[in-house]
Design goal:
Distance between the termini: 36 Å
Largest sheet: 7 strands, mixed
Number of domains: 3
Number of helices: 15
Organism: Pseudomassariella vexata
Keywords: FAD, Flavoprotein, Oxidoreductase
Pathway: Secondary metabolite biosynthesis
Number of strands: 26
GO molecular function, one term: oxidoreductase activity, acting on paired donors, with incorporation or reduction of molecular oxygen, NAD(P)H as one donor, and incorporation of one atom of oxygen
Bound molecules: flavin-adenine dinucleotide
Protein name: FAD binding domain-domain-containing protein
Structural class: alpha+beta
């Protein structure tokens, strides 16, 4: 029989129990706590990561952190920023090393707001999340661990997961019930093992890495750059860090070595001696070593990310790979973000529970691509150092002039991937394709450059109310809602289409009307106006292809759209990627500058579908069909 939870914070009923306060657990917890969910979050360490471990935040992750309002707290630590990567190899003749080229870490053909990698140690990043969680009333319980769990709908339909927790010193224990359990426990996940979920190894090659963070004295000229150095004495990777530090990665052993020993280790002194030999003729001495670790790593991917869509895994619990491209933490963030909004959509009442089945295929495919990339990347650097001319060509060419040169191709694909902009989710109920149940001819209008399952493109626009130039893609924060971008074309052309769009949106059977907030009358003008005051699930903004000074919100927009006046923009900024366009944002998206179009962006920033903006009910009908594929209510039907 279903047990009714008692109300109050001491109740042992939670929306979710999160085990592990590394990047994946913290991101999940932060999102869900902001959206009002009750969370039990534990970690078996007494304190956050004190030093070392992951350190690279990729450009796309920085966008995400900005979208969450956390970027400035990260940047306050004055992290190192890597704009270029330098390659050092043995010279044609003689000994030592010479620089053979440099390339942009995020080249200009990638339309990134922050074209650099941000380097900061994992603990400082964790603390930014922890501070945000505390603001929302979540305290991570430390050092606590999980000892058992079971998930059984028949025992309690609403809170089917029972979790046993205990203090690591065994002095206290607790049993709690939850709607969900999440393992963000890292590579040795207890939950994954208990579920009997296997780990597949794509590339059987394993490595042992030495990682050293410290302050050095050196005459090596690129110590403030990211460098890959090959020498006759071995290879090393140099990564600049905050507080004048530098990280060195040295491969200590590989399963391809004739005397391979997975337990092979090296002392701090041995690694330093090896680094000194590799860097010759330059000198290097350590003033201070902050962290040193020997880090054995094999590629692995969890066979399943969930068995019952109640107990989920993410981050390193699902995928492990080499640290070379700095992807671990970034992939962990995006796993959590993907799951967070889906749990919100289901628990908030927008979406059918089946939506949760999209988490594993979407994120597992990314992990599989990551492991493939990790293999390729390792080979690219360990087998054939690129020639300077190739490096130069790769950094300068635009993708339209891409040649068949394998190295250039791999480099470009890798940059897109490593920057985080290469993620492409396949067709499903969320990412429209011709096989989607929504079959309106208005979907996917001719000319659109937006690809469903990929991030919406960046665009600069001018906010109408205050003439501020802003990043359109950042205007709606990560608030768990779908982002409805109405590209409204020319006001004189789309006036009727906008009226019809607003009229049909206002219908109780539209995707928007069906999920109106009950307390709509109590929303004050200033309350959450830039968020989603009328709906937990949809935030709407409008972009006119017109000069800002020519736009009059109350004249050009019907009431339903005009009330989000802080989210009305003029598409009047020049864009270097399409210098001849009159309305660059419309043109970038491939939408008609006169007639516009409507873009539905998922809460995590990926395009769900694109529809033409037409007079009559067609546009809203098409979107109703799209949302009907996963929403709980029948939409658009009397
Ligand atoms: C020693 C080491 C060195 C690394 N170095 C690098 C590096 O140089 N570069 C790089 O890119 N990546 C590195 N990584 C990987 C990187 O840290 C991860 O990819 C990233 O942190 C993934 O985040 P996560 O949240 O999934 O897991 P983690 O960061 O591993 O977090 C897991 C958390 O769960 C906690 N936990 C585990 N089991 C339990 C349990 N049963 N109960 C309660 N809590 C539990 C752990 O204490 C930890 O806080 C390193 C990892 C390790 C272990």
């Amino acid at each position: 029989m279903e047990q009714q939870p008692s109300i109050g914070s001491s109740s042992p009923y939670y929306d979710i129990v999160i085990v592990g306060a590394g990047p994946v657990g913290l991101m999940l917890s932060t999102c869900l706590s902001r959206w009002g969910y009750k969370i039990k979050h534990i970690d078996n360490r007494a304190e956050p990561t004190p030093t070392g471990r992951a350190d690279g935040i990729q450009p796309r992750s920085l966008d995400l952190l900005r979208n969450m309002g956390l970027k400035s707290a990260i940047m306050a630590h004055k992290p190192a920023r890597v704009y270029e990567v330098a390659f050092w190899d043995p010279p044609q003749t003689g000994h030592g090393i010479v620089r053979t080229g440099t390339w942009a870490s995020c080249p200009s053909f990638i339309d990134a707001r922050y074209p650099f990698t941000t380097l900061l140690h994992q603990g400082l990043i964790e603390r930014v999340f922890i501070a945000d969680l505390e603001k929302n009333g979540v305290q991570i319980k430390r050092p606590w661990t999980i000892t058992d769990f079971k998930s059984d709908n028949s025992e309690n339909l609403e809170y089917p997961v029972e979790v046993q927790l205990k203090h690591v010193d065994g002095t206290a224990s607790e049993t709690v019930r939850a709607k969900y359990l999440f393992s963000g426990e890292g590579a040795r996940s207890f939950v994954r093992q208990q579920l009997g979920i296997g780990v597949s190894h794509k590339d059987p090659i394993a490595h042992v890495w030495g990682v050293m963070d410290g302050v050095v004295k050196t005459d090596f000229p690129d110590i403030k750059m990211k460098c890959t150095i090959h020498s006759e004495h071995g290879s090393i990777m140099v990564i600049p860090r905050e507080d004048n530090m530098v990280r060195l990665y040295i491969q200590i052993a590989s399963s391809t070595d004739p005397d391979w020993d997975p337990c092979k280790t090296a002392t701090e002194g041995e690694v330093q001696a090896s680094a000194k030999r590799i860097l010759e003729p330059y000198s290097i001495e350590w003033e201070r070593v902050e962290w040193y670790s020997v880090y054995p790593i094999g590629q692995g991917i969890s066979d399943k990310y969930t068995l019952d869509h109640r107990v989920f895994l993410g981050g390193d619990a699902c995928h492990t790979h080499s640290p070379k491209a700095g992807q671990g933490m970034n992939t962990a963030f995006l796993d959590a973000q993907n799951l967070a909004w889906k749990i919100h959509a289901v628990e908030g009442g927008l979406a059918d529970r089946a939506l949760l089945t999209t988490y594993e295929p979407e994120r597992k495919e990314v992990a599989e691509n990551l492991l493939d990339f990790d293999n390729k990347y390792a080979k690219l650097f360990s087998q054939r150092p690129p020639a300077a001319a190739e490096v130069q060509a790769a950094s300068e060419q635009s993708p339209t002039h891409a040649e068949d040169n394998e190295f250039i191709k791999t480099f470009k694909e890798s940059c897109e991937f490593t920057s985080g902009y290469g993620v492409a989710y396949g067709p499903n109920v969320l990412n429209w394709s011709p096989s989607h149940p929504a079959q309106s001819a208005l979907l996917n209008p001719k000319g659109t450059k937006l690809r469903t399952g990929r991030l919406m493109m960046n665009a600069d626009v001018t906010r109408v109310v205050d003439a501020n130039v802003v990043y359109l893609e950042q205007q709606i924060p990560l608030n768990g809602s779908f982002r409805i971008y109405v590209f409204a074309g020319k006001p004189s052309v789309t006036q009727q289409a906008l009226k019809d769009f607003a009229f049909n949106l206002g219908d109780k059977r539209s995707f928007f009307g069906a999920y109106y907030c009950d307390n709509i009358a109590s929303v004050s003008y200033h309350d959450n106006l830039d968020l989603n005051p009328h709906s937990l699930f949809f935030t709407i903004c409008t972009v006119f292809a017109a000069r800002r000074s020519s736009i009059e919100i109350s004249r050009d927009l019907p009431d339903l759209l005009a009330r989000y006046r802080d989210l009305v923009y003029a598409d009047d900024r020049w864009d270097r990627h399409i210098p001849d366009a009159k309305a660059a944002a419309h043109a970038k998206m491939g939408l008609d500058e006169e007639n516009g179009g409507v873009v539905v962006v998922r809460p995590d920033g990926y395009v769900g579908c694109v529809a033409s903006l037409v007079e009559g009910s067609g546009t809203v009908d098409a979107l109703n069909d799209y949302f009907s594929a996963f929403c709980t209510k029948k939409l658009g039907i009397t």
